[in-house]
């Protein structure tokens, strides 16, 4: 990725290089927009600093854009898919040199694509259709960015779109969605399209297993509209899926995207890897940190989950290894300042409330960049 560099008029102290490497502020601004706004704010206080903007993702929303910006000669391919609530939706997959494809679940089966949450019937059919399109386009290796899903179907929708059949005790195909999985009796994989010869890597943004108190249904179901009864039903369905399909439901990351990581691993042989590590390397963040004065990162909400497979945690780890102090911007800050960070700012505080911050995110991101520049020392 070509860095965006800013210089300006004289400033009072020695100019330094600052790397701005945020995630998207989901529902408010893309990672590219966040990085640019933070950079504008920083430049208003320290105009002589060199600013390098590197938008980052963790396997969720924005991953495809990061790869498109970071990898020369990448090509976007539009595809029409079935959205998570059954309505047609425009998505795309990305072809990288070397017959590598990037498919982003959030673009095909993401929660923002729903008119309203439907935790029991939302499904990942669109993801499978995008994967099928990438295979038809000649992909020999596929990176699947898992994050931001609308469903808790264990990836059964995606696998069904690839030719698998999930049947009840009468031999009838189950309806889509995680709510039907308690009736699963048999899985037929004879018609499943084989994975590409170079394999499949799932870029996961969490380390949750499929099942249990830290699993897909229990932890993430409520974020998709599931009430307590729904969570119990979804958890039971995923348990049944694991009993029938096998695989490794306890693997770290198996619970990503409502268990889609588990389903792709168990039925398609996919490897589960931390998304943020793969994506930061593709974006060139380790090299950019060498000799930097500071790194600015951020996300919509900084909380206890931010250090487990998310962008902020990944940037912090790389910055600590490089000895670069970290400055944090977030819409809301709901956890103590992490090790390696020297300052943090919440847009909600600057704007006088979360709703005001979300109404004008770029304005308050510029204000956050200015405040962090003033506090950098």
| Cα-to-Cα separation, first versus last residue | 28 Å
What summary fits the major beta sheet?
A: 6 strands, mixed
**Helix-strand category:** alpha/beta
Based on DSSP secondary structure assignment, what is the total number of beta strands? 13
The outline comes out as globular
Strand percentage lies at 15-25%
What is the highest CATH level, the class of the largest domain?
Answer: Alpha Beta
Order of helices and strands: EHEHEEEHHEHEEEHHHEHHEHEEHHH
Radius of gyration: 21 Å
GO molecular function, one term: glycerate kinase activity
Pfam families: Gly_kinase
Keywords: Kinase, Transferase
Family: Belongs to the glycerate kinase type-1 family.
Please, could you describe this protein's structure?
Helix 1 (31-45) crosses helix 14 (361-375). The longest helix is centred in the middle third of the chain and has 18 residues, at 228-245. 56% of the residues are buried. The chain has 2 domains: 15-53 and 283-373, 3-Layer(aba) Sandwich (Rossmann fold); 61-274, Glycerate kinase, domain 2. The chain is α/β, with parallel strands linked by helices. Helix 1 links the parallel strand 1 (17-20) and strand 2 (50-53). Mean pLDDT is 93; it is low at 1-12. It is globular, with a radius of gyration of 21 Å. It has helices spanning 31-45, 63-70, 105-109, 125-136, 156-161, 216-220, 228-245, 256-268, 275-283, 285-289, 311-322, 347-351, 354-359, 361-375, and strands at 17-20, 50-53, 75-82, 88-96, 100-104, 141-146, 165-167, 186-188, 200-204, 271-274, 294-302, 326-333, 341-346. It is 36% helix and 20% strand. The chain has a 6-stranded mixed sheet, sandwiched between helices. It has a 5-stranded parallel sheet with strand order 2-1-11-12-13. Strands 7-8 form a two-stranded antiparallel ribbon. The protein has 14 helices and 13 strands.
């Amino acid at each position: 990725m070509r860095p965006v560099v800013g210089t300006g008029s004289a400033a009072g102290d020695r100019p330094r290089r600052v790397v701005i490497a945020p995630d998207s502020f989901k529902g408010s601004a893309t990672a590219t927009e966040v990085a640019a706004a933070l950079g504008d704010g920083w430049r208003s206080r320290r105009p002589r600093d060199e600013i390098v903007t590197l938008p980052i993702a963790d396997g969720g929303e924005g991953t495809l854009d990061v790869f498109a910006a970071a990898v020369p000669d990448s090509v976007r391919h539009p595809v029409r898919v079935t959205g998570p609530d059954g309505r047609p939706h425009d998505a795309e997959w990305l072809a990288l040199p070397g017959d590598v494809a990037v498919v982003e679940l959030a673009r095909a089966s993401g929660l923002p694509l729903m008119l309203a949450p439907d935790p029991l019937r939302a499904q990942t059919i669109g993801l499978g259709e995008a994967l099928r399109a990438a295979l038809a386009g000649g992909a020999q290796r596929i990176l699947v960015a898992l994050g931001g899903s609308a469903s808790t179907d264990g990836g059964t929708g995606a696998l069904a779109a690839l030719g698998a059949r999930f049947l009840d005790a009468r031999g009838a195909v189950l309806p889509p969605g995680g709510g039907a999985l308690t009736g699963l009796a048999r899985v037929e994989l004879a018609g499943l399209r084989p994975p590409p010869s170079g394999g499949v890597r799932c870029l996961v943004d969490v380390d949750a297993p499929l099942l249990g108190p830290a699993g897909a249904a229990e932890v993430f179901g409520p974020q998709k509209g599931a009430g307590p009864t729904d969570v119990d039903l979804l958890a039971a369905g995923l348990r049944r899926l694991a009993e029938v399909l096998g695989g490794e439901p306890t693997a770290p990351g198996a619970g990503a995207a409502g268990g889609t990581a588990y389903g792709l691993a168990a039925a398609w042989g996919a490897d589960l890897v931390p998304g943020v590590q793969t994506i930061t390397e593709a974006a060139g963040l380790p090299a950019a940190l060498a000799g930097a004065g500071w790194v600015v990162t951020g996300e919509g909400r900084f909380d206890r989950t931010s250090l487990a497979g998310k962008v902020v945690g990944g940037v912090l780890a790389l910055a600590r290894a490089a000895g670069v102090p970290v400055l944090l911007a977030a819409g809301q800050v709901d956890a103590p300042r992490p090790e390696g960070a020297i300052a943090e700012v919440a847009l909600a505080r600057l704007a006088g409330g979360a709703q005001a911050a979300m109404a004008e995110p770029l304005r308050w991101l510029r204000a956050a960049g200015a405040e962090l520049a003033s506090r950098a020392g």
